[in-house]
């Protein structure tokens, strides 16, 4: 039965910056073809927030997410060095989206085949708390730079428990805790300690081991199949999730979900890609897959499955893909091809 607007689920849609509006438009088009359960409230953030509302994180956007507790978000540009603080980080803080889940799996076999990994990133603490300052020396106001990372035992235990519960729910067998407890003995040692404590509650159900982040980076290149789930502090999770994307074809293939206790924001792992913005060449698959995670979140796993099947058929049967995957399709052409697949099944 067609759902009527009355039965639709209100969700905030943030087109974002750079390639954001292009991949968001492609995603909305594909969701519409699936019979989207969502009714969108379009709001702005990032540079688009400044352009539309004079603020990189306008109050109306925050109010919309607060009301809907659900959002699909394009990437937001953050100025490097000076300038406003990341609207992504602020959104995660505002809604206490502590759990960032970034699954990757091979759709087009490339350098690696049969990759099926989930990275869980602690999303609020570590070095992202922005406790940073300069110490002036002589006439150099920026002679010394200092950053403080903050991890609490509660937050570490919370992300570990979240990861173990995710493993149980999704049939995952092993969690590898990524740290640098040999050097950052306190900041990441606490993360490891807390994870080990939590792991005891899951003994016999989910296995846990740990690895130092640099060794993990190398092992992910040599033998990624040894891993099942990775649980990381904020900064290591950020870095390794781009590396995971590289195992399955690049940043165009990597979705992400930010979960709090009552709010969830779905996005791609990639950023606003200013180098290709406005050219209709961006790969929309990351955001499409993120919308699949959003469909699962609202109990529409059947639609998510149809979406993933249509993407797989478009890539592997129709051989249509964007240029980052060595194809020639534009963003719009790729979206249209996925829509054709959905409409023919
Ligand atoms: P990026 O992820 O935007 O781009 C890195 C490289 O990957 C570029 O060469 C880009 O063209 C390519 N790429 C990314 N997504 C692609 C796609 N869908 N299809 C094809 N190619 C794609 O990272 P970059 O350049 O470091 O950051 C640009 C801006 O994005 C910065 O302001 C950064 O702060 C922001 N950013 C925002 C994120 C978010 O909103 N969650 C996440 C990461 C970065
Ligand atoms: Mg990143």
From TrEMBL:
Residues 8-338 form the Isopropylmalate dehydrogenase-like domain. It comes from the Bacteria. It is an enzyme of class 1 (oxidoreductase). Coiled coil: none annotated. Signal peptide: none annotated. GO terms for biological process: isocitrate metabolic process; tricarboxylic acid cycle. SUPFAM superfamilies: Isocitrate/Isopropylmalate dehydrogenase-like. Its EC number is 1.1.1.87. Transmembrane segments: none annotated. SMART domains: Iso_dh. GO terms for molecular function: homoisocitrate dehydrogenase activity; isocitrate dehydrogenase (NAD+) activity; magnesium ion binding; NAD binding. InterPro entries: IsoCit/isopropylmalate_DH_CS, IsoPropMal-DH-like_dom. Keywords: Oxidoreductase. Belongs to the isocitrate and isopropylmalate dehydrogenases family. PANTHER family: DECARBOXYLATING DEHYDROGENASES-ISOCITRATE, ISOPROPYLMALATE, TARTRATE, ISOCITRATE DEHYDROGENASE [NAD] SUBUNIT ALPHA, MITOCHONDRIAL. This is Homoisocitrate dehydrogenase. It comes from Paraburkholderia humisilvae.
């Amino acid at each position: 039965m067609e759902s009527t607007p009355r039965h639709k689920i209100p969700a905030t849609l943030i087109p974002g910056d750079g390639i954001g509006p292009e991949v968001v438009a492609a995603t909305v088009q594909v969701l519409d073809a699936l019979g989207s359960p969502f009714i969108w409230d379009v709001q702005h953030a990032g540079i688009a927030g400044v352009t539309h509302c004079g603020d990189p994180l306008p109050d109306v956007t925050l109010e919309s997410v607060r009301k809907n507790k659900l959002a699909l978000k394009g990437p937001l540009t953050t100025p490097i060095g000076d300038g406003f603080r990341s609207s992504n980080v602020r959104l995660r803080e505002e809604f206490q989206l502590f759990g960032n889940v970034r699954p990757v799996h091979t759709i087009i076999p490339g350098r690696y085949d049969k990759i099926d990994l989930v990275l869980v990133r602690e999303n609020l603490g570590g070095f992202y708390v922005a406790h940073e300052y300069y110490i002036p020396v002589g006439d150099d106001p920026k002679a010394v730079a200092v950053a403080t990372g903050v991890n609490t035992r509660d937050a570490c235990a919370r992300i570990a428990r979240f990861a173990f519960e995710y493993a149980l729910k999704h049939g995952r067998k092993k969690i590898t805790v990524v740290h640098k407890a040999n050097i950052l003995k306190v900041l990441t040692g606490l993360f490891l300690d807390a994870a080990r404590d939590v792991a005891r509650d899951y003994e016999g159900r989910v296995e846990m081991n740990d690895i130092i982040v640099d060794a993990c980076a190398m092992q992910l290149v040599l033998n990624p199949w040894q891993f099942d789930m990775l649980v990381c502090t904020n900064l290591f999770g950020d870095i390794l999730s781009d590396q995971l994307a590289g195992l399955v074809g690049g940043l165009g293939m990597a979705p992400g979900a930010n979960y709090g206790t009552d709010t969830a924001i779905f996005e791609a792992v990639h950023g606003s890609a200013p180098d290709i913005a406005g050219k209709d060449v961006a790969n929309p698959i990351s955001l499409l897959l993120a919308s699949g995670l959003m469909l699962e979140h609202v109990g529409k796993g059947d639609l998510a499955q149809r979406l993933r099947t249509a993407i797989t058929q478009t890539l592997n049967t129709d051989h249509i893909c964007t240029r980052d995957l060595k194809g020639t399709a534009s963003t719009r052409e790729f979206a249209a091809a996925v829509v054709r697949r959905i409409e023919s099944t």
